[in-house]
Amino acid sequence: MDSMKAVLLNVFIGGADTTPGTIEWAMSEIMRNPEVMQRVQKEVRSVFRDEVDEEGLHKLEYLNAVIKETFRLHPAGPILPRESRESMEINGFHVPQKSRIMINMWAIGRDPAYWGEAEKFNPERFLDSAIDYKGTHFTFLPFGGGRRMCPAIQFAMPIVELTLANLLFHFDWKLPCDMRPEDLDMTEHFDTAIRRKEKLCLIPTTTTSARPSRLG
Ligand code: HEM
């Protein structure tokens, strides 16, 4: 019974903050980078005609790169906890058996040793790149890796893609009070996940350019 409770709690905690948090960070980064907004909206609006559907998602190469870049800078699971099964030596440090090891994916994602212009939101770095989120590229593990990696990738990714594609397809977006993109507050609040400290507040306007066939 206790392990059933633990599994259910894990699913609730694992699913609660991660997906909406990723969508919120992606929209924040897209708003801060108008050239990314222009490119991603152009892609979404050229792939879909009347509605966004799941079948077309695989064609959204640039949106996929935007999501990967969001994971790199704002990983929903910033710390991956592990325990060493045996004692070992890593980079000259002795790690005793059963040590608790915290892998800091947030820091690895911003490490200039692995990423050019590491602090810059640049989805283009993932275009024509073999790096994916399946747990084999150790500098990029948004869903973790190994036997404890997130069991919900196939479920979570379409939700993130569909939500963002819909937001970008149906609406144009503005920052409130004539705020400039570079003034958008990106302060982080660290909990089990890293969320925005201030909620993201945006103004949607409906657009006719997304639905040419209905107007035609
Ligand atoms: C964008 C969405 C999501 C991201 C980025 C994400 C990321 C992660 C990460 C980094 C881990 C730790 C993996 C490791 O230690 O190697 C994890 C574990 C887990 N996630 Fe997700 N997750 C997402 C969505 C979800 C959803 C929607 C659910 C459930 C409905 C879920 C359920 C779980 C569970 C149960 C675990 C624990 C697995 C275990 O300990 O064996 N996740 N997730």
TrEMBL record:
Keyword presence, Cell membrane: no
Cofactor requirement: heme
Domain of life where this protein originates: Eukaryota
Subcellular location: Membrane
Gene Ontology, cellular component aspect: membrane
InterPro entries the record matches: CYP450_71D (IPR052306), Cyt_P450 (IPR001128), Cyt_P450_CS (IPR017972), Cyt_P450_E_grp-I (IPR002401), Cyt_P450_sf (IPR036396)
Molecular function per GO: heme binding; iron ion binding; monooxygenase activity; oxidoreductase activity, acting on paired donors, with incorporation or reduction of molecular oxygen
Topological relation to the membrane, as annotated: Single-pass membrane protein
UniProt entry keywords in alphabetical sequence: Heme, Iron, Membrane, Metal-binding, Monooxygenase, Oxidoreductase, Transmembrane, Transmembrane helix
Binding-site list for heme: 150
Pfam family, one: p450
Annotated family: Belongs to the cytochrome P450 family.
PANTHER family: OS06G0641600 PROTEIN (PTHR47953:SF19), OS08G0105600 PROTEIN (PTHR47953)
Protein's name according to its UniProt entry: Cytochrome P450
